[in-house]
Specification:
GO terms for molecular function: phosphoric diester hydrolase activity. The chain is an alpha/beta fold. The chain has helices at residues 32-41, 80-84, 103-112, 134-144, 158-166, 180-189, 192-202, 213-221, 226-232, 247-258, 269-276, and strands at residues 6-9, 12-18, 44-51, 57-58, 87-89, 95-99, 120-125, 151-155, 172-175, 208-212, 236-242, 263-266. 45% of the residues are buried.
Length: 278
Protein backbone atom coordinates (compact mmCIF):
# COMPACT_ATOMS: atom_id res chain seq x y z
CA UNK A 1 0.00 0.00 0.00
CA UNK A 2 1.25 3.49 -0.85
CA UNK A 3 1.91 5.57 2.24
CA UNK A 4 -0.94 8.09 2.78
CA UNK A 5 0.89 11.35 2.35
CA UNK A 6 -1.05 13.39 -0.21
CA UNK A 7 -3.60 13.37 -3.03
CA UNK A 8 -2.81 14.84 -6.45
CA UNK A 9 -5.67 16.17 -8.59
CA UNK A 10 -5.41 18.35 -11.69
CA UNK A 11 -1.80 19.27 -10.99
CA UNK A 12 -2.43 20.26 -7.36
CA UNK A 13 -1.09 18.37 -4.35
CA UNK A 14 -3.20 18.21 -1.20
CA UNK A 15 -1.44 16.82 1.86
CA UNK A 16 -3.22 14.43 4.22
CA UNK A 17 -2.39 15.43 7.77
CA UNK A 18 -2.20 12.62 10.31
CA UNK A 19 -4.46 14.07 13.02
CA UNK A 20 -3.07 13.45 16.52
CA UNK A 21 -0.49 11.16 15.01
CA UNK A 22 -2.96 8.70 13.49
CA UNK A 23 -2.24 6.89 10.23
CA UNK A 24 -5.55 4.98 10.29
CA UNK A 25 -8.83 5.17 12.15
CA UNK A 26 -7.97 2.40 14.62
CA UNK A 27 -4.77 4.09 15.79
CA UNK A 28 -4.63 5.62 19.26
CA UNK A 29 -3.59 9.25 19.52
CA UNK A 30 -0.13 10.63 20.29
CA UNK A 31 1.97 7.46 20.20
CA UNK A 32 5.63 8.05 19.55
CA UNK A 33 5.88 5.19 17.05
CA UNK A 34 3.25 6.63 14.70
CA UNK A 35 4.57 10.19 14.99
CA UNK A 36 8.08 9.02 14.14
CA UNK A 37 6.74 6.94 11.24
CA UNK A 38 4.99 10.00 9.81
CA UNK A 39 8.08 12.14 10.15
CA UNK A 40 10.31 9.47 8.59
CA UNK A 41 7.99 9.16 5.59
CA UNK A 42 7.74 12.91 5.02
CA UNK A 43 4.11 13.21 6.12
CA UNK A 44 2.28 16.10 7.70
CA UNK A 45 1.35 15.16 11.27
CA UNK A 46 -0.35 17.05 14.10
CA UNK A 47 -0.06 16.76 17.87
CA UNK A 48 -1.50 18.92 20.64
CA UNK A 49 0.32 20.69 23.46
CA UNK A 50 -0.84 21.67 26.95
CA UNK A 51 1.28 23.18 29.71
CA UNK A 52 2.35 21.13 32.75
CA UNK A 53 3.49 22.15 36.22
CA UNK A 54 7.21 22.33 35.40
CA UNK A 55 6.89 25.04 32.75
CA UNK A 56 6.90 22.71 29.77
CA UNK A 57 4.41 21.10 27.44
CA UNK A 58 2.83 17.65 27.36
CA UNK A 59 1.71 16.04 24.10
CA UNK A 60 -1.97 15.85 25.04
CA UNK A 61 -5.21 17.44 23.90
CA UNK A 62 -7.09 17.79 27.19
CA UNK A 63 -6.12 19.98 30.12
CA UNK A 64 -7.19 17.14 32.41
CA UNK A 65 -5.55 13.73 32.51
CA UNK A 66 -8.51 11.44 33.14
CA UNK A 67 -9.71 10.73 29.60
CA UNK A 68 -6.46 10.44 27.67
CA UNK A 69 -4.13 8.91 30.26
CA UNK A 70 -3.98 6.64 33.30
CA UNK A 71 -3.61 9.71 35.51
CA UNK A 72 -6.12 12.03 37.15
CA UNK A 73 -6.31 15.75 37.77
CA UNK A 74 -5.06 18.75 35.83
CA UNK A 75 -2.07 18.62 33.51
CA UNK A 76 -1.21 22.13 34.74
CA UNK A 77 -0.76 20.78 38.28
CA UNK A 78 1.23 17.67 37.30
CA UNK A 79 5.01 17.70 37.05
CA UNK A 80 7.15 16.30 34.26
CA UNK A 81 8.37 13.25 36.19
CA UNK A 82 4.82 12.23 37.09
CA UNK A 83 3.55 12.71 33.55
CA UNK A 84 6.30 10.47 32.18
CA UNK A 85 5.05 7.64 34.40
CA UNK A 86 1.55 7.76 32.91
CA UNK A 87 0.26 5.66 30.04
CA UNK A 88 -1.96 6.78 27.19
CA UNK A 89 -5.47 5.34 26.83
CA UNK A 90 -7.09 3.93 23.71
CA UNK A 91 -10.41 5.29 22.46
CA UNK A 92 -12.26 2.67 24.53
CA UNK A 93 -10.45 3.78 27.68
CA UNK A 94 -8.12 0.82 27.97
CA UNK A 95 -4.50 1.59 28.91
CA UNK A 96 -1.88 1.38 26.18
CA UNK A 97 1.76 0.35 26.50
CA UNK A 98 2.72 3.85 25.29
CA UNK A 99 3.65 6.46 27.88
CA UNK A 100 2.73 10.14 27.78
CA UNK A 101 5.28 12.20 25.85
CA UNK A 102 6.53 15.63 26.80
CA UNK A 103 7.56 18.01 24.03
CA UNK A 104 11.25 17.56 24.80
CA UNK A 105 10.81 13.77 24.78
CA UNK A 106 9.28 13.94 21.31
CA UNK A 107 12.10 16.18 20.08
CA UNK A 108 14.67 13.80 21.58
CA UNK A 109 13.06 10.98 19.59
CA UNK A 110 13.31 13.11 16.44
CA UNK A 111 16.98 13.63 17.21
CA UNK A 112 17.46 9.87 17.29
CA UNK A 113 15.26 9.36 14.20
CA UNK A 114 15.90 12.30 11.83
CA UNK A 115 12.77 13.41 9.95
CA UNK A 116 12.37 13.43 6.19
CA UNK A 117 13.05 16.92 4.75
CA UNK A 118 9.40 17.19 3.65
CA UNK A 119 7.94 16.17 7.02
CA UNK A 120 5.91 18.78 8.87
CA UNK A 121 5.06 18.44 12.56
CA UNK A 122 2.22 20.72 13.61
CA UNK A 123 2.28 21.61 17.31
CA UNK A 124 -1.27 22.74 18.09
CA UNK A 125 -1.07 24.83 21.26
CA UNK A 126 -4.24 24.44 23.32
CA UNK A 127 -3.56 27.28 25.77
CA UNK A 128 -3.81 31.06 25.59
CA UNK A 129 -1.35 33.87 26.20
CA UNK A 130 -2.16 34.06 29.91
CA UNK A 131 -0.87 30.50 30.38
CA UNK A 132 2.61 31.36 29.12
CA UNK A 133 5.46 32.62 31.24
CA UNK A 134 9.09 33.31 30.34
CA UNK A 135 10.38 29.92 31.51
CA UNK A 136 7.76 28.01 29.54
CA UNK A 137 8.64 29.95 26.39
CA UNK A 138 12.35 29.37 27.02
CA UNK A 139 11.83 25.63 27.50
CA UNK A 140 9.72 25.48 24.34
CA UNK A 141 12.47 27.13 22.31
CA UNK A 142 15.12 24.78 23.72
CA UNK A 143 13.03 21.76 22.74
CA UNK A 144 12.15 22.72 19.17
CA UNK A 145 15.12 24.76 17.94
CA UNK A 146 16.93 21.85 16.28
CA UNK A 147 13.84 20.94 14.24
CA UNK A 148 12.43 24.35 13.36
CA UNK A 149 12.45 23.61 9.62
CA UNK A 150 10.09 20.67 10.19
CA UNK A 151 7.75 22.32 12.72
CA UNK A 152 4.79 24.68 12.55
CA UNK A 153 3.10 26.03 15.69
CA UNK A 154 -0.65 26.61 15.48
CA UNK A 155 -3.64 27.56 17.58
CA UNK A 156 -6.57 29.86 18.05
CA UNK A 157 -4.79 32.36 20.32
CA UNK A 158 -2.49 34.01 17.82
CA UNK A 159 -0.80 36.24 20.40
CA UNK A 160 0.35 33.10 22.22
CA UNK A 161 1.41 31.44 18.96
CA UNK A 162 3.43 34.51 17.99
CA UNK A 163 5.22 34.54 21.34
CA UNK A 164 6.23 30.90 20.92
CA UNK A 165 7.34 31.18 17.31
CA UNK A 166 9.25 34.42 17.91
CA UNK A 167 11.31 32.56 20.51
CA UNK A 168 12.85 30.51 17.67
CA UNK A 169 13.65 32.51 14.53
CA UNK A 170 12.68 30.60 11.41
CA UNK A 171 9.86 28.65 13.08
CA UNK A 172 6.58 28.76 11.12
CA UNK A 173 3.17 29.47 12.59
CA UNK A 174 -0.45 28.99 11.63
CA UNK A 175 -3.77 30.37 12.82
CA UNK A 176 -7.16 28.78 13.41
CA UNK A 177 -9.95 31.40 13.53
CA UNK A 178 -12.75 28.84 13.92
CA UNK A 179 -13.27 29.47 17.61
CA UNK A 180 -14.66 32.13 19.91
CA UNK A 181 -16.05 35.48 18.92
CA UNK A 182 -15.04 35.35 15.26
CA UNK A 183 -16.85 32.07 14.71
CA UNK A 184 -19.95 33.26 16.52
CA UNK A 185 -19.97 36.38 14.39
CA UNK A 186 -19.71 34.30 11.22
CA UNK A 187 -22.61 32.15 12.30
CA UNK A 188 -24.67 35.25 12.98
CA UNK A 189 -23.84 37.16 9.80
CA UNK A 190 -22.88 34.56 7.21
CA UNK A 191 -20.26 37.04 5.99
CA UNK A 192 -17.57 34.59 4.93
CA UNK A 193 -15.39 37.17 3.21
CA UNK A 194 -15.14 39.39 6.30
CA UNK A 195 -14.43 36.33 8.43
CA UNK A 196 -11.46 35.25 6.33
CA UNK A 197 -10.07 38.77 5.85
CA UNK A 198 -10.19 39.29 9.62
CA UNK A 199 -8.30 36.02 10.07
CA UNK A 200 -5.63 37.12 7.61
CA UNK A 201 -5.22 40.46 9.39
CA UNK A 202 -5.07 38.82 12.82
CA UNK A 203 -2.27 36.49 11.71
CA UNK A 204 -0.22 38.45 9.16
CA UNK A 205 2.69 36.00 9.13
CA UNK A 206 0.76 32.71 9.38
CA UNK A 207 1.84 30.19 6.76
CA UNK A 208 -1.40 28.21 7.18
CA UNK A 209 -4.96 29.22 7.97
CA UNK A 210 -6.75 26.26 9.58
CA UNK A 211 -10.45 26.16 8.73
CA UNK A 212 -13.20 23.76 9.68
CA UNK A 213 -14.12 21.94 6.48
CA UNK A 214 -17.83 22.67 6.93
CA UNK A 215 -17.11 26.42 7.02
CA UNK A 216 -15.16 26.19 3.77
CA UNK A 217 -17.98 24.23 2.14
CA UNK A 218 -20.70 26.54 3.50
CA UNK A 219 -18.86 29.51 1.99
CA UNK A 220 -18.56 27.63 -1.30
CA UNK A 221 -22.29 26.93 -1.31
CA UNK A 222 -22.89 30.65 -0.73
CA UNK A 223 -20.73 31.52 -3.73
CA UNK A 224 -17.54 32.57 -1.91
CA UNK A 225 -14.27 30.69 -2.44
CA UNK A 226 -12.59 30.95 0.95
CA UNK A 227 -9.56 28.94 -0.16
CA UNK A 228 -8.95 31.20 -3.15
CA UNK A 229 -9.09 34.22 -0.82
CA UNK A 230 -6.39 32.74 1.40
CA UNK A 231 -4.29 31.78 -1.62
CA UNK A 232 -4.57 35.34 -2.91
CA UNK A 233 -2.91 36.47 0.32
CA UNK A 234 -0.04 34.05 -0.24
CA UNK A 235 -1.08 31.57 2.47
CA UNK A 236 -2.22 27.95 2.54
CA UNK A 237 -5.41 26.34 3.85
CA UNK A 238 -5.78 23.27 6.03
CA UNK A 239 -9.37 21.96 6.20
CA UNK A 240 -10.09 20.08 9.44
CA UNK A 241 -11.13 17.40 10.50
CA UNK A 242 -12.41 14.44 8.48
CA UNK A 243 -13.04 12.01 11.33
CA UNK A 244 -14.57 9.15 9.35
CA UNK A 245 -14.42 7.98 5.76
CA UNK A 246 -17.92 7.45 4.35
CA UNK A 247 -20.01 8.58 1.39
CA UNK A 248 -20.71 11.98 2.97
CA UNK A 249 -17.11 12.80 3.80
CA UNK A 250 -15.83 11.49 0.45
CA UNK A 251 -18.19 13.92 -1.27
CA UNK A 252 -16.96 16.74 0.97
CA UNK A 253 -13.31 15.91 0.37
CA UNK A 254 -13.86 15.68 -3.38
CA UNK A 255 -15.18 19.24 -3.34
CA UNK A 256 -12.29 20.43 -1.17
CA UNK A 257 -9.87 18.93 -3.66
CA UNK A 258 -11.65 20.73 -6.50
CA UNK A 259 -11.23 23.96 -4.53
CA UNK A 260 -7.49 23.19 -4.33
CA UNK A 261 -7.20 22.95 -0.57
CA UNK A 262 -3.57 22.55 0.48
CA UNK A 263 -4.06 20.11 3.33
CA UNK A 264 -6.82 18.00 4.86
CA UNK A 265 -6.72 16.96 8.49
CA UNK A 266 -8.05 13.46 9.00
CA UNK A 267 -8.15 10.71 11.63
CA UNK A 268 -7.90 8.14 8.84
CA UNK A 269 -5.34 9.20 6.21
CA UNK A 270 -4.91 5.61 5.08
CA UNK A 271 -8.63 5.02 4.62
CA UNK A 272 -9.18 8.38 2.94
CA UNK A 273 -6.33 7.86 0.50
CA UNK A 274 -7.63 4.39 -0.37
CA UNK A 275 -11.17 5.67 -0.92
CA UNK A 276 -9.95 8.40 -3.25
CA UNK A 277 -7.63 6.12 -5.21
CA UNK A 278 -10.08 5.58 -8.05
Amino acid sequence: MTDPLYIERDGHRTWLKWHRGRRKASDPAFTGARILEAMRLGASVEVDLVIHADHGCAVLHDKTLDRETTGTGLVRETGAASLRQLYLRAADGSPLPDRVLLLEDLCDLLGQNPPHPDALLQLDFKEDLAALDDLTVENFALAVSAFKRNIIVSGGAFDAISLLTNSTPGLMNGYDPCYGASLEQLRATGDHETFIQNALRTAPDAAFIYLHHEIVLAADNAGFDMIAAVHAAGRKVDAWTINHVNSTTISQVTRLLALRVDQITTDDPEGLAAALDT
